[in-house]
Structures are given as structure tokens and as C-alpha cells.
From TrEMBL:
InterPro entries: Creatinase/aminopeptidase-like, Pept_M24, X-Pro_dipept-like
Organism: Trichophyton soudanense CBS 452.61
Obligatory cofactor(s): Mn(2+)
GO biological process, one term: proteolysis
UniProt KW Metal-binding keyword: yes
Keywords: Aminopeptidase, Hydrolase, Manganese, Metal-binding, Protease
Domain of life of the source: Eukaryota
Official protein name in the record: Xaa-Pro aminopeptidase
Recorded family membership: Belongs to the peptidase M24B family.
Amino acid sequence: MQQYAGYISDVTRVWPVNGKFTPAQRELYTAVLNVQRSCISLCRESASLSLDKIHDIAERSLREQLDSIGFNTSGNAMRTLFPHHVGHHIGLSVHDCGGYSRQEMLRKGQCITIEPYDFLIPKQNRLINEC
């Protein structure tokens, strides 16, 4: 966990254990990074979006990115690959903003996370280690 100015949040980073991405790992890393950057750009009051709407956009974008690099995302695959919400409010504790609905429009001054990572099945040989 990290703390800054009284706010606490979890921090997730991804890197290859041996220091160098394989081509498949680089593709996947880039795909998820593209989705994250896109979603972060939507985190402004003028976008008139809620965390739930950003989640919908993230899931759709992630499906498109994964399809483009050869993943089968048909059926319920996204429930396995992306089983969590794209983000949450943060505050004086990592998840302490339980009173805020993910359906409310984001407003200036709110602190949220955007974390669109994947859970991959190791047998696909495209696993990126999350630390």
C-alpha cells in the first residue's frame, strides 16, 4: 500500500520476472495498458461518466484488444479474464469509500483507481506475472 497526503491506495505493477517481455507478453501488456490509459482519460467530471460506465467501456475495450491479439473472448470468457470491477474510490483507507455508488457520476476532487488487469490461464502460455 502507498500513502500520500493522508490518502491510502493499493499499488499494482506488472513486469517480466527475467527483465524482458516475450513477444506475447509484450502484446498483452500493451493491450491492457491501452485500455488503462483510455479509461484514465475518461476520469474527469466533463465526461459525465460513472465508474460503472467506465467499467463497461473498459470491458468492451479489453475484449477488442484481446480479440486483436488472438484471445478467444466469446461466451463467458471475460468473466474469467476480467472478473472484477475496473476501479473503486479510495480515501483514508484503501477501500473506505463504501458510501459512494459506482453509478454516481464522477466529480472533481474524487480519488479513484483504474486497474484493468487480466487473470490468465497459465496453460495459454501468455501469463504475465502480477506482483
